[in-house]
């Protein structure tokens, strides 16, 4: 055991250059290599990828990594390929490849070169892929962003539903499922759907002690936000709005008020969207005004504030979106504007949906309203929602919300607010 431990640390150093494991990474990896099914619940930035990347690199055969977004896959493949001196140990298999490229990937797998194969669930069901994967040595299957399996999650993907039967067809190997969504409902759903009731569960705290949570009534919201951002001039921040139209309008309003801001939503031309995102990452622009299309897989450590112009549809979404602030452990101010009328609008929208979707949607909205209207510690409320107990007096970050303390002192606004 100790020899194996020393060995794992050596491999960690060799491939990733890190001297120590983060959180429970080492136990997770040991158990996966020992053939166990594993379920990992760890907040964003916790280091989930390494839990399957390292064992994949040191195992015989190819690990299949199921991931929901082509963009995410590409990032990871590039990152993994940068780690190893052997060229191309990670590959993507999806609809973006042509025949020649697909054949190349198949050859690399057969030749034992590919240690990690990233696939989208909808690719995995293709007959020619399935037939091929059945014939090669698979080390294990990793299901990243596993909450996509659950309708209670914030990013449900119907294609994730059938994963279990597909994996069973490919190989009898250990499965590791990973997610940053930890509500007991989602957790239960994932384990049931994947047939992982006997899996070892590794859950880390979802507390983000450096984030400050505040909810304000949605009155003079434009002016309030302009003022807030002016007080944080030069710092990176995200403003979330529900509609594309609002995103465009508000980005313009910020610009008119001398704030270096750009819009981001799925309706923008691909080139503009990518350019705006890159400008934010490269610090050419301070503020991104965005719909929820922005953020997944974006790793900017020094985002100093996340503002919700509109309240999100669930507390998970809220947690994920605010979680993009303060990743480096520094200041992260999470400010949300609440208007019960916005919730009514969302309810009306849900009324047009099929019954099951509507019921889930309404329950999620109830939790959002509860959070917005609570007078208890907001951190305690969020963590309770994730099935975690939090001491609102002594817990880490206990005074970091509007209900628990006076808000931090803000500098005087210097910007000209007359244009709002
Ligand atoms: P998650 O998928 O849980 O959101 P990632 O896998 O993207 O998190 O990892 C978040 C960051 O943590 C990455 O920059 C990664 O390089 C870093 N990281 C992971 N494991 C370690 C470690 N053992 N030591 C130092 N940094 C680590
Ligand atoms: Mg991840």
Q: Top keywords for this entry?
A:
420 residues; binds magnesium ion; binds adenosine-5'-diphosphate; alpha/beta; 42% helix; 16 helices; disordered C terminus; 7-stranded parallel beta sheet
Q: Estimate the helix proportion, in percent.
A: 40-55%
Tally of contiguous helical segments: 16
Strand content: 15-25%
- Rounded mean pLDDT score: 90
List how many beta strands DSSP finds.
13
- Calculate Rg over CA atoms: 22 Å
- N to C succession of SSEs: HHEHEHEHEHHEHEHEEHEHEHEEHEHHH
The global form is globular
Strand order of the largest sheet: 3-4-2-5-6-1-7
- The CA-CA distance between the termini, in Å, is 65 Å
Quaternary = single chain
Helix/strand-derived class? alpha/beta
List the uncertain runs.
407-420
Q: What's a concise summary of this model?
A:
Belongs to the helicase family. RecQ subfamily. This protein has 420 residues and is of the alpha/beta class.
